[in-house]
Amino acid sequence: MTDAVSDNTESSEYTENAEIPARHRQLEQIEIDLLCEAIYRYYGFDFRQYARASLKRRIMNLLSLEGLGSISALQDRVLHDRQMMERFLLNLSINVTAMFRDPAMYVALRNKVVPLLQTYPSIRVWHAGCSSGEEAYSMSILLEEEGMSSHSKIYATDFNEAIIKHAQAGVMPLNEMQAYTANYQKAGGKRSFSEYYSARYDRAILVPRLRNPIVFSRHNLATDGSFNEFNIIFCRNVMIYFDDNLRNRVLELLHNSLCRFGILVLGTKESLQFTPFEQYYKELDGPGRIYQRIR
To answer: CA-to-CA distance for 144 and 109, rounded, in angstroms?
Structure first.
């Protein structure tokens, strides 16, 4: 009898211990839900439909950086300290970018898209989720080299105001210029890349004329609507962090912002295939994820 009682006790303890991680994960999900809802209701930033795995990683990283013991503690700090909220936004911003990133896409732009853009008397470009501005400046260079800069306007938007201010400055780390030069050459650049910046200590300062056609402003893809009609829209490597519902909401926003026969450019890990909008586009360049609206 004694042995039987011992076995049952051990089994009960094992079951209870096994339930602890499951309860902990459930509690974390509840805390993340409450944090996102609180931020949306108080600040207007909507992270409720961001992909949970990526969102959780970034929140946990911020907890470590701030020395906080729980997501609930982070919520308290975010709601009562605006500087904490700014740090939260910086931590959630996806800032993996580079000038002329994915050079083959820019080669396809020059060969397949530029001839289409040259048929318009004026050109409106939208870089949605522009991060620190490298892609917007890359497009400014491309338009200049193709003789279209004078009648083009580039709108570069991001939800993070601090990132937008950084992008407006047109200042980049000097140690990145070697890699950017290689990208530019592979992307079909027609000049010496050094013509587009000056070196100051450890910084590279882009020439002012590249900033002239660019309008930087804050726009939240998750909550804000369309604000213009565009000939070409770039939204690259942004929607990979969204769940399906938010991704489709953003695709609808981009579709409604694009003129007929306009061009949509997505990231290399993104596609219109198997989305509700696939039927409205034809593929101009598969590897470059370049699509033309046909309906």
So the answer is: 14
The rounded percent of the chain whose pLDDT value lies above 90 is 74
Express each pLDDT in 184-205 by its tens digit: 999 999 999 999 999 999 999 9
CA distance 271 to 278: 9
| pTM as predicted | 0.83
Please report which residue ranges of the chain form alpha helices under DSSP H.
2-43, 52-66, 71-80, 82-92, 103-108, 114-117, 134-145, 161-169, 177-186, 244-256
Give 255's pLDDT tier (boundaries 50, 70, 90): very high
Closest alpha carbon to 105 in 234, 192, 206, 231:
234
* Average model confidence (pLDDT) across the chain: 90
Concatenated DSSP letters for 33-81?
HHHHHHHHHHH----TTB-HHHHHHHHHHHHHHHT-S-HHHHHHHHHH-
d(CA 20, CA 193) in angstroms, rounded, equals 57
Residue with tokens 């409205």: 280
**Phi, psi torsion values for 232, nearest 5 degrees:** -150, 135
Q: What residue ranges define each of the domains in the chain, with the CATH number in brackets?
A: 2-92 (no CATH), 103-293 (3.40.50.150)
**Cα–Cα distance measured from residue 274 to residue 252, given in angstroms and rounded to the nearest whole number:** 14
